[in-house]
Amino acid sequence: MTLRVFFSPASPFVRKVFVAAHEKGIADQLEKLPSNAWPVKRDPVIVRENPSGKVPTALLDDGTALFDSRVICAYVDSMSGAMPLLPEDPAKRFQAMTLEALADSILDAALLCRYESVLRPSEFYWQLWHDSQMEKVDSGLDDLQKRWLPHLTGAPTLGSIAVACALGYLDFRFADKPWRKDRADLAAWFAEFSCRPSMKATMPE
Questions:
Q1: Is residue 100 a contact partner of residue 47, using CB atoms and an 8 Å limit?
Q2: Which among 36, 54, 149, 198 is most buried, taking Cβ atoms within 10 Å?
Q3: Burial level of 141, CB count in 10 A (0-12/13-18/19+)?
Q4: Tens-digit pLDDT profile for residues 145-194
């Protein structure tokens, strides 16, 4: 079984999928498909499979398309019975899913900040919009520090993988943002998680 994934080396959502695959020991079953994903001019090749034109979009052997990253990560988890990334216990499972959703909300806001700063013509730049999105990032980080640390420790889940990819994206695209300030425990967890082979193998370019 091969899962073909439209790939972008800088996408934190694509990274989630490949970190999950490495953790499951099936990274060799994922094939990277080239893409020209872009929020303004969409790649028509991806649009044929996913109307949003976003990555990641994955294709099964029979051509069935899967999207978005949460669906693809869950599918990756199902490709091997080794070390489930979504716990079988219902309470822990929904905690992991909620944690993944929180991490994705941080990423969504961070990407909007990135687009506002880099893609929007300077004469149309909206500082309030940018700052409002960054407030969402900060409140999400605060919640991770205050409420979610116990759920980050232990065996990796799709939730903890998503958090690690979100924090990695902040370091990659917002290197001057002092997100570690007043979040020492979260920073320590991320430093340890970043040493995992799955994270090293998927560093953004």
A1: no
A2: 54
A3: buried
A4: 999 999 999 999 999 999 999 999 999 999 999 999 999 999 999 999 99
The answer to whether the Cα torsion of 82, 85, 91, 94 is positive or negative is: negative
Radius of gyration from C-alpha coordinates of the chain: 17
**DSSP element (H, E) containing 157:** none
What domains, with CATH codes, occur in the chain?
Answer: 3-78 (3.40.30.10), 90-200 (1.20.1050.10)
Q: Does residue 40 surpass a pLDDT of 80?
A: no
Q: Token pair for residue 152?
A: 């980050």
**Spatial separation of the C-alpha atoms in residues 160 and 107, rounded to whole Å:** 14
Count of Cβ atoms closer than 10 Å to residue 137 Cβ:
22
Longest Cα–Cα distance in the chain: 53
- Indicate the angle between helix axes 12-24 and 90-118, nearest 10 degrees: 150
Residue pointed to by tokens 């669906």: 71
